Structure formats: C-alpha cells, structure tokens
Amino acid sequence: MNFEMTDEQRQLQAEARRLSRAELAPKAAHWDAKAEVPWDNINLLAKSGYMGLLLPEQYGGTGASLLDLVIVLEELAWGCVNTSLFVFSANAQGNRIVQLGTEEQRASYVPRIAAGTLLASHAMSEPGAGSDARKLRTSARREGADYIVNGTKCWISRGSVAGLFLTNVNFTDEGSKGLLLIEADTPGVEIGKIEPLMGHRGSPSTELIFRDVRVPADRRMSEGDLSASLFSMSFSRCCNAAMGLGAAQRAFDEAVEYLKTREAYSRRLADLQGLRWMVADMKVKLDAARLLIYRAAASAASGFPSEGEAAIAKTFANETALQVASDAMQLMGANGYSCDYPLERIYRDVRAFAIAGGTTQIQRNLIARSVLGQRDHAKG
Questions:
Q1: pLDDT digits (tens, 9 = 90+) for 222-232
Q2: If we measure between CA atoms, which residue out of 55, 83, 53, 82 comes closest to residue 70?
C-alpha cells in the first residue's frame, strides 16, 4: 500500500490550505456570530472550481477523485467549517445525480451545480423518520405525466438557500421508495422553521413542506431507489469525517502554539509531561482518523465508497474530533473557553458531525452488519 500523496494531490492540498488560511479563516467567526451564509467564500471557491471538484469534466467539473475531495475539505474546514459544508454539498449532490440520475438530469443540473449557480440539498429526514429512512411518509402519487408530492421534511441542511432538493419519497402507487428532483421554486414548496443551531450556524437547517407539489415524472432519479439512496450516504460520510477532522486539526494546531508560548511555574506549558502526553494522544488519534478516511475514500472507484469502511471512518473521526477539540480547549484553560479564541466555535462545529449523516450509533450498526451480516428480523 502506498500512503504517499501524488504530486497533484500535494498541489491541490497546498492551494486549498493557502485559500483556507488567507481567505476563509479570517472571517469564520463573523459567519458564525451572525449566522450568515458565507456567500463571499462560496463565490470565490466556485470561481476556483471547488464546487465541481469531483464532478465529471463533461458536466463542467474537474473530474477529481473522492480522495482528492476529502483532502481539500479537511483544509477548507480548518479555516471555516461553514464554507466547507457548501463545497461538500455541491460535490455530494452533484455526484448523486451523476451516479443515480438520468442523462437528461445530469445535463440539466450538474453543470450549474459545478459552477456554483445552483445549490442542491438532500431532503431525507422527516419528523418521524430521521435515521430510519424506511419510515418515510412523504408521498408521491402518480397523476398523468406528473407526481403529486405531499409531506414534511426536517433538518434539511442548507434548505433555505438551496435551489434543488434531492428528495426521498414514498411512491404510494407502487409501494416503493426513491428520489425525486424537486426545484425550490415549484408551487407548493415551502420553507418552514429555520433551526437555531449550536454550530454550523452559517449553513441553515430548515423544515421543508410539500403541499400538492406537481413534479414532472422525468424528475424521478432512475437508479435512486431506497437501497441506492442509502448506499450513496457512504460518500457523504467520508466528507463529513474529513470536515470534522479539519476542524479538529485546527483546534490541535491552536493548542500546540499556545503551549509553546505560555508559561506556568517558570516553565513552558509545552515542557510539562502531563500536557505533552495529551498532545501525543491527540496526534495519534488525528493521524489514525486521517488514514481511515483516506482508506474509505480510496475505495470509491465505482462512485461510492465501501459502506462499512465509510462507517468506520466516520465513527472514529467524529469521536476523535470531539475529543481533540475538548482536549485542546482544556490545554488552553480559560482562554480556550473564551470567544476571543476559535476553540469554542470549533467545539460547537465538530459536535454536529457525530449527528449529521447518520449518528455514530447508526454507524456502529452498519459496521456490525458488515462484520456479522444482515440481522435476521424474522427471529427478532
């Protein structure tokens, strides 16, 4: 196994790191404090090709790999988690359309997503069906050349600014579940409550309501049945893990610099053995998380990574990010808890990753299933 990046990946990482530190990090606190979408950053990154980094060249993208994308997302999240979420969403939803949609759908939507002129969001969660997607109640009833959609979604990331929703629905006439592409300006589509969030405050999560929404039948994603839709989540889980890792790396870097410059009892904090061991443990966990993410991302030759490997990467990286952010705050003492330093914001942001995209408890179910096989429901 070769654990070295290619020259192209090093260049990609270096440029993302430069942009993150020079352009994203200085205003990250502003977007968080004001709960504003970082449009300046989004427009900058769209012009630089990041919104279509992974998408095929024939649809306006760059044609990079998932491994390339997670390398970039880690760097962007180091500077501003809110901004990284929009780059993730463009590539994730664009890739879903490429992998699960029709050629007409690809040609219609993917170039605009890659250009950053169309923001897409995945509308799956419902009040009674969060992690259990099989209990979806949003209905799509066939009427002539259209589907009539009714239902309510919740916790839809970037819902208030998205122009397109990849919507999980229950095709009631068939007794099956799948994906419909529903444009935000379609009559009957309503944005409900915007959630007051602890973190990810520049990436609004909203309620989404469908009232007799008429959707042309050709907006049904051809390969987007429930099984394919759930498997596609493994892509998002790799990206989720990478963004959490990037934020945790920032917390680690801040704490390390702090220890080098502060003193206690006439000694540098960096020379105190108890603190040095904490730093060592943090470094071990960050490196292990990175390798697990890279392993999962590298398995995505067919469009989506291994479900089991993605679940392992997300579980370990999510819990590592939260622990590292907490330890970094502890190492910086009262200053770590102060809003004058980025640690408290990072802590709030990384907390969300262990919930979004399937909780770490759900990931453990997926991991166990990959090891032990599908549970025998008939036997309980």
A1: 888 888 888 88
A2: 53
Q: For the chain, what is the domain count? A: 3
In the chain, % of residues over pLDDT 90 = 84
For residue 48, CA distances in Å to 15, 28, 52, 167, 343 come to 10, 19, 9, 29, 29
Give the 3-state DSSP-derived string for 6-60, with helices as H, strands as E and coil as C: CHHHHHHHHHHHHHHHHHHHHHHHHHHHHCCCCHHHHHHHHHCCHHHCCCCHHHC
* pLDDT attached to residue 4: 83
H-run or E-run covering 133: none
Task: Give the residue carrying structure tokens 């398995």.
Answer: 299
Structural domain boundaries, residue 30:
7-119
Q: Is the pLDDT of residue 380 over 50?
A: no
> How far is residue 148's CA from residue 170's CA, in Å, rounded to a whole number?
11
85 closest CA partner among 255, 260, 243: 243
3-state secondary structure of 246: helix
Return the closest-CA partner of residue 206 out of 219, 218, 190, 191.
191
Measuring CA to CA, which residue among 91, 96, 82 is closest to residue 116? 91
Identify the three-state secondary structure at position 155: strand
CA dist 335 and 329 (Å) reads 8
Same domain, 252 and 286: yes
CATH number at 40 reads 1.10.540.10
Q: Which secondary structure element, helix H or strand E, spans residue 368, and what is its range?
A: helix 360-372
- CA distances in angstroms from 155 to 49, 111, 176, 197, 208, listed in the order given: 28, 26, 23, 10, 8
Cα 92 to chain centroid, rounded: 8
- CB-based burial label for 262 (10 Å; 0-12, 13-18, 19+): middle
Q: Which tokens sit at 377?
A: 């429901």
Percentage above 70 pLDDT, the chain: 97
Select from 206, 224, 242 the last residue of a domain.
224
Gap between the Cα atoms of 143 and 346, Å rounded: 48
Chain-centroid distance, C-alpha 232 = 13
Q: Are residues 187 and 237 in the same domain?
A: no
Length of the chain: 380
